[in-house]
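Notes from the 1:1 (GR / supervisor)

We went over the backlog. Supervisor wanted to see one worked example end to end before approving the batch request, so GR pasted a single chain during the call. The sequence is below; no edits were made to it. Supervisor asked that the structure be written out right there so they could see what the output format looks like.
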Amino acid sequence: MVKPGKLSRRKFISDTTMSATGLIIAPSILSCKSKNQNSMIKLGVNMEFVRSHDMPFEAGVKKAAEIGYEYVEPMVHMGRELLSEAGYFHSVSMYNDPLRIKEICDANKVKISGLSSHTPLIKPEISVEYLKQAIRFAAEMGVNVVNTDEGPKPDWTTKEMDYCLMKYTLTEAARVAERHKVFIGLEPHSQYSKTPDGLDSIYDIVKSPSIGINFDTGNSYLAGGSDVYEWLERVKTRLVHLHAKDISLAQSNAERGKVSGTPVGCACGDGVVDWKRIISIVKSTGKNIVFSVECGTIEQAFRSYEHLSKLL
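Structure output shown during the call:
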């Protein structure tokens, strides 16, 4: 385990990246250059794009590959549940063999950008073992990011208690993440992370090089308390993953400033997000960052890919 303080977060994020084989290599070697040789951005899609189509993980991966995505972001759960077992839902059980999940992606020539492993950090009875298992599951596949947020809080705890509980959860998770060279991507999504100061307050709870930021363009916009682009500039040196989520004008008018996040957005390019500006900010980091598109349908995933591809 890398002891906190022994290796800076910035150096950990910039100098170490995990390949699909689990080997640690330099980002410049890992990067597969696109048509734009200066681009360090790759396109992926969160598997929620097939949720409304009642498709299993395997079919969703195949569809993502057909559209042209290089990466997918699976959602993982503990135990077993009816819909995934019956082939009607995209979520992957961590009771499965992680190498089987990797084999499915390999067969379709796509990689995994990270795991959607959202769990309420404020509820350690749920989140500690779930997040540690997600980290081990990711590492077994050679995946170096797991994404999460503080989640909804209990209705009886105080803010002081919530931060104590999050510190416990993140300390336990970070110790495992450091051993496995996996990043925990904290996402703006819930009551405390809906502002730049709030997200930083969670990031600062535990000093670990394994903790970074998974910036969500849609959630940060809907929260309404700050400028999305200034927020991204603020966290860009800590960025390990990005949720490319656009917000329709109708949703913006109805929900902005009233919610802290949303499951999926509209097709990238159909909403209010300035993708040229987002891309410019991320490119300025010189990092290899996957834009994991979060939308609700296959058709939206296709149009998102077309729109973002033209800008890269």
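Supervisor's comment: The mean pLDDT is 90.
Batch request approved.
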